[in-house]
Known about the structure:
With about 425 residues, this protein is α/β, with parallel strands linked by helices. It has two domains: about 15-190 and about 375-395, Glycogen Phosphorylase B (Rossmann fold); about 220-365, Rossmann fold, CATH 3.40.50.2000. Helices cover about 45% and strands about 15% of the residues. It has 17 helices and 13 strands. Helix 2 crosses helix 8, helix 4 (about 90-105) crosses helix 5 (about 120-130) and helix 9 runs parallel beside helix 14. The longest helix is centred in the first third of the chain and has 19 residues, at about 90-105. The chain is globular and about 75 Å long. The chain starts with 6 loop residues before the first helix and ends with a helix. The model has no long low-confidence stretch (mean pLDDT about 95). It binds uridine-diphosphate-N-acetylglucosamine and uridine-5'-diphosphate. Uridine-diphosphate-N-acetylglucosamine binds near residues 59, 60, 61, 263 and 265.
Amino acid sequence: MPLQRNLSADRNETAGIQMKCRVIAVLGTRPEAIKLALVIRELRRRSDDFETAVVHTGQHRTMLDHALQFFNIKPDFDLDVMRPQQTLSSLTARVLDTVENACRRFEPHMVLVQGDTTTAFASALAAYYCKISVGHIEAGLRSHDIYNPFPEEVNRRLVGVMTEIHFAPTAMARDNLLSEGVPNGKIVVTGNTVVDTLRALSHLPQSWENTPLADIPHDGCRLVLVTSHRRESWGTDQENMCLALKDLVKQHPDIRVIYPVHMNPNVRSTVNALLQGSDRIHLTEPLDYITFVSLLQRCFMVLTDSGGVQEEAPTFGKPVLVLRKVTERPEASQFGMAKIIGMSRDNIVSEAERLLDDADAYLDMSQGANPYGDGHGSERIVEAVARWHQKKTPLLEPDKEFKLPPKPQPRRRKSDLANAKTAAAGKS
Length: 428
Ligand code: UD1
Ligand code: UDP
């Protein structure tokens, strides 16, 4: 039975007695569950300070339910909005209506939303219509192009307009918000909570028995992990990417491509039509989180358009080729751990070949600490919400905020040494 605010709580609040902070955490898609799992755990751990309800909009079903089971999150409200081939407008309308209803029943002080999905945007709007404060986790990422990623860039910006506390994962995200006029006092730099989730995985499975990866032969081939699902890539770009993967396996007998295919039918139809049955290209169902992370740990490199995967791969030192024209997560490319390569067939092949064939180029992209987080984002977020509720400022002491790790130093290569010697010889 859904939770409801009790009347004695109302009386205490009117009498000026500090009440527990009532928080709704909303999730609807796979990445939201993965990134909110530790925030929800921390809210529940601090049960003296918080009363927490989890709202599952049901924007995703199978893909999200896997993650909820894995993290043992039991939603208090399950709104079941997913429809096959849902349009953005109908999805937005259903989330808006049902989340508003949940807000009216639970009467939270704050609604926490995560990221840039339609669940995040429509839930923030529902909270705003109920005059409930919004806390935006993963705020301030910007590609500065409203159609890339679509509709996520605009979803994220619209949430920002309605937000009371902006939880920016990095300093760069905070700078984006400041440049849009958000007051510094409303921004907390937390680190991305996906790094908290990764660090909480105590051990990764050594075997892929009973998983969709069980049939991958152990023949010494290097594994290339691929994921892609973005709306702006459907059609020609996605087809080019599939053809590039075929070129790569043809030219490199020592690689296998593993591609867990997203459940969106628009993605599946293209990928299945072009890649099913191809030698050394393994299409699988979406993997459960722990299996996916163990694949990330064991693969040679990653080709992806996923936001979350871009943020996770640096934890394992895996180079990422980003299958997009722009990214709102530039930190890994600035650290030399990722490269944005677009969706042209030739470019995908040549950039992947550079990493497959050039050991120095590979090493350059596989060193350094994860620039997105340090594993304490969830604690910072929950502490800042508690302080906000107690009307304390600042929301978090500046020295407790997430700081970028040092940028990896360029490695010295044999060729650099030879060039330096030649230059020195020329001078003398
Ligand atoms: C959504 C988010 C995207 C996020 C991605 C993470 C929006 C607009 N898009 O994209 O930002 O990066 O999730 O994965 O918020 N489906 C299933 N079962 C599932 C999930 C999806 O069958 O468990 C199918 C359904 O036919 C559904 C379709 O996929 O209608 C599209 O789902 P939707 O949530 O609208 O978009 P995604 O492409 O999944
Ligand atoms: N992921 C997973 N199984 C898969 C593919 C991805 O558990 O088969 C996880 C991945 O580790 C990351 C998240 O899903 O944490 C990313 O989700 P997705 O790519 O769907 O969305 P995005 O991050 O692009 O919004």
